[in-house]
Write a structure and sequence with these properties.
The chain has helices at 21-27, 165-174, 178-201, 217-223, 229-232, 248-251, 273-281, 364-377, 429-452, 475-481, 498-508, 510-522, 534-540, and strands spanning 2-7, 11-15, 46-49, 70-72, 82-85, 125-131, 135-142, 148-155, 208-215, 244-246, 260-263, 291-295, 301-306, 309-314, 336-343, 348-353, 361-362, 394-396, 400-407, 410-417, 423-428, 462-466, 492-496, 523-525. The longest helix is centred in the middle third of the chain and has 24 residues, at 178-201. Among the domains are: 2-90, Beta-grasp domain (Ubiquitin-like (UB roll)), CATH 3.10.20; 110-269, Domain of unknown function (DUF4445) (Nucleotidyltransferase, domain 5, 2-Layer Sandwich), CATH 3.30.420.480; 320-433, no CATH class. It starts with a strand and ends in a 7-residue tail after the last helix. The chain has 547 residues and is an alpha/beta fold. The chain is globular. A six-stranded mixed sheet has the order 8-7-6-9-11-10, with helices on both faces. A six-stranded mixed sheet has the order 23-22-12-13-14-24. The structure holds FE2/S2 (inorganic) cluster.
């Protein structure tokens, strides 16, 4: 056995000879990004080996060369005692978006009716949980008043099994311990968040009598340790999308023994409880129709509410807009660029950086901004290619410069520290292609969903953008990319984490819970994977619009 020490966490563990370093890191909960789930394709699991000769790794992405110390953890195996440093840029800790709009519902928690089963007097609490693919948020609520007492969030630790749901589903379906490990990870983080919230609010976990859980179909199935094979093979029809009520202890949740854990219902395989909750949270009935709610995530779920009802689709946008599969993509960590502005008149560059740290890469909003701005100033042409004529253009401010350069086999837009001349990160031609694929899928989904009801984008009264994007998301960048048409730029509202808001409402209002159940059955789903026009629309939308 060998001793392995991780920095900066100072966690010391033992490992058998030949143990894969990434699997060791996963087992001990050390914070390390591993977006591809260890298949060696994302390049995000970089670690620094403080004594490189003792680990045999094939991954050598760092500037220190093949024999150097920066390696991909998923390629390394332990052969001696070793000290491993996880650089900040490889840590998966993120700024969590936990705010979302909340519609108005009459206060009246369903749990009140269960008082004879549990506590007859004293305080009773509820917990609303949003299990996102990337983050988990839990809100502790006083069920006597509806007041939110404390809210805690953390990254979803299932990320060690893959950043997107399909990698995790593959793990669940191919590893005999997969379902158990996925459940344990998410249950552990929920228990931890609830313990923190109770501690902060001075509440007893024993007095938690109701838990409302929201998330997409995969997340809720992983929580309940249920099979997901119906969600991953054609025709992608969910065996069941109904809500589930069970004892918290059945899931391993550490709460009052008389309580209930209620998983919100989904509408179909890819229109999950998070979207259903979102429709309740934004109070979809109050908006002048037609209105579109869209979650720009990996599956690009969207619901159109018009005079004929609710119609939804999901489109395989891929995780590019979350900074995944992008060479300079990072989560919303300190140093992530979340906003970019370019100006052709004075060749100005402005970067908005989380934590005002040295820029380390682009998170979702920064990526959308940078590509949109490069299209705006002509560094990227309509087809998505970097323009050869833009190679001499240098954008800058006092601290940073950005310019198009040949890097290896492809052109990249490189951001450099002006004082040290150090390259900080670069957006490659391949990254731009990933953004094109994502935006084309979303736009094609929107167009076909609207066409289903005889509508066009210009007919929409409002577009509500939900999900992990912060309020830094600029509608004009979505217009520049061609995700939204120019008529819609002034009709966009960023509504935040409506999945959590919907779970909260289902916790404090019986009416809202009834509405969740009703809405989940009213949504008609359009299957884009078999739609005859999807491919044509997708290809048409690969181009960027002219300004
Ligand atoms: S390259 Fe190692 S986890 Fe992706």
């Amino acid at each position: 056995m060998h001793e392995v020490t991780f920095y900066p966490s100072k966690i010391k563990v033992t490992a058998e000879e030949g143990r894969n370093l990434l699997s060791l890191i996963r087992e001990h909960g050390v914070d390390l990004a591993s977006e591809c789930g260890g298949t060696g394709t994302c390049g995000k699991c970089r670690v620094r080996l403080e004594s490189a000769t003792v680990i045999d790794g094939k991954g050598h992405p760092g500037p220190e060369g093949r024999q150097g110390r920066i390696r991909l953890a998923c390629h390394c195996h332990v052969t001696e005692d070793i000290v491993v440093t996880i650089p900040e840029s490889s840590q998966a800790l993120i700024k969590v978006l936990d705010q979302g709009v909340r519609g108005r519902y009459l206060f009246g928690p369903p749990a009140v009716r269960r008082q004879n089963n549990g506590w007859r007097d004293g305080a009773r609490f509820g917990v609303a949980v949003d299990i996102g693919t990337t983050t988990v948020v839990a809100a502790l609520v006083d069920l006597a008043s509806g007041q939110e007492l404390s809210k805690k969030s953390a990254r979803n630790p299932q990320q060690v099994y893959g950043l997107d749901v399909l990698n995790r589903a593959r793990y669940a379906q191919t590893d005999q311990y997969g379902p158990l490990n996925l459940q344990r990870k998410v249950v552990a983080v929920i228990n931890d968040l609830v313990a923190q919230a109770c501690h902060e609010a001075g509440a007893s976990r024993e007095r938690i009598v109701d838990v409302c859980l929201s998330g997409n179909q995969f997340m809720l199935r992983f929580l309940r340790r249920e099979d997901t094979s119906d969600l991953t093979v054609p025709p992608y029809e969910a065996r069941s999308s109904a809500s589930v009520s069970q004892a918290p202890s059945d899931l391993g949740l550490d709460m009052g023994e008389h309580g209930t854990a209620y998983s919100l219902p989904s509408a179909s395989a890819f229109i999950g409880a998070d979207i259903v909750a979102g429709l309740v949270a934004v109070d979809i009935d109050k908006w002048e129709r037609p209105v579109l709610l869209i979650d720009i995530g990996t599956n690009g779920e969207m619901v159109l509410a018009d005079k004929d009802g609710l119609c939804a689709c999901s489109t395989a946008a891929g995780p590019a807009f979350e900074g995944v599969n992008i060479s300079c993509g990072v989560s919303a960590i300190n140093g992530a660029v979340e906003g970019v502005f370019l100006d052709n008149d004075e060749r100005r560059l402005s970067l908005e950086v989380i934590g005002e740290a040295e820029p380390v890469g682009l998170c979702g909003t920064g990526l959308i901004d940078l590509v949109a701005e490069l299209v705006k100033v002509g560094v990227i042409d309509r087809t998505g290619r970097y323009s050869a004529g833009a190679e001499g253009w240098v954008y800058g401010n006092d601290d940073y410069m950005g310019q198009l350069r040949q890097k290896g086999a492809q052109r990249s837009f490189v951001i450099t520290d002006r004082r040290t001349s150090k390259d900080l990160f670069s957006l490659s031609q391949r990254d731009v292609r990933e953004v094109q694929l994502a935006k084309a899928a979303i736009r094609a989904g929107m167009d076909l969903l609207l066409k289903e009801r005889g509508l066009r984008q210009g007919d929409l009264h409002t577009v509500l953008i939900a999900g992990g994007f912060s309020h830094k998301l600029r509608p004009e960048s979505l217009v520049q990319l061609g995700v939204l048409s120019s008529q819609l730029g002034d009709h966009v509202e960023v509504v935040g984490n409506t999945s959590l808001s919907g779970a909260y409402l289902a916790l404090v209002s019986e009416k809202a819970r009834e509405r969740v159940e009703t809405i989940s059955k009213l949504i008609k789903t359009v299957n884009l994977s078999t739609h005859p026009e999807f491919e044509r629309s997708f290809i048409e939308n690969m181009r960027f619009p002219t300004s």
